[in-house]
Amino acid sequence: MHITEVVLDGFKSFGRTTRIPLYEDFTVIAGPNGSGKSNIIDGVLFALGLARTRGIRAEKLTDLIYNPGHDGDEDVSGPNEAAVTVVLSNEDGTLDRAQVVAAAGSENVGDVSEITIKRRVKRTEENYYSYYYLNGRSVNLSDIQDLLAAAGVTPEGYNVVMQGDVTEIINMTAYQRRGIIDEIAGVAEFDAKKEAAREE
Ligand code: ATP
Ligand code: MG
Question: Domain 2-153 carries which CATH code?
Answer without folding.
Answer: 3.40.50.300
